[in-house]
Amino acid sequence: MSDNPSAAPPSNGPSFLAHLTADLAVPFAQAEVACSDLPVIEYRHGNSPVFYPIKMPGLGRVGNVILSGMMPLGSPSLAALQQQVAAGRPAGTTIAIDLLDENGNRAATWNLNNAWPTQVDTEDPQPGASTFLATVRVSFEQLAIVAPPR
């Protein structure tokens, strides 16, 4: 990896487009999948002559997806999403998050099955600014990554 910061791709636009509802697609600069793992269950049968534990996979755990980026002031889509979260758990749907390349074309899609937003955080904008930082946490049950055909 190069130590030259100018070698990094420019971040002048959103890198992700999240389709949170059927009529709400929100651009984000960052998307992060929190820890997902499959714990190991170790057990030993009561009268087994073997002293080593038997291992088997446990229940899988998935983390949340954390989306963050700059939003324009007065964004009605984000306000509607905040109202849904404040009202209680929205119905679980499939949420698609498109990874965009440097030209704004879809490079891959994350499909989150039975997903719903759990938290929407916003920071107060700076005086004179036209954007503010927003962070959306999405809980889901299954993640499928789909790459477009080449």
Characterization of the model:
The chain has 150 residues and is mainly beta. It has one domain (14-37, 53-146): Pnp Oxidase, Chain A. The protein is built from one helix and ten strands, in the order E-E-E-E-E-E-H-E-E-E-E. A hairpin with a 5-residue loop joins strand 7 and strand 8 (106-122). The radius of gyration is 20 Å and the shape is elongated. Mean pLDDT is 79; it is low at 1-10.
Key terms for this structure?
150 residues, two-stranded antiparallel ribbon, 1 helix, elongated, Pnp Oxidase, Chain A
CATH superfamily, by name, is: Hcp1-like
Estimated radius of gyration: 20 Å
Number of domains: 1
- Structural class, from helix and strand content? mainly beta
CATH class category label: Mainly Beta
User: How confident overall, as mean pLDDT?
Assistant: 79
Shape: elongated
Q: Compute the number of strand runs.
A: 10
Distance between the termini: 27 Å
Number of helices: 1
Strand content: over 45%
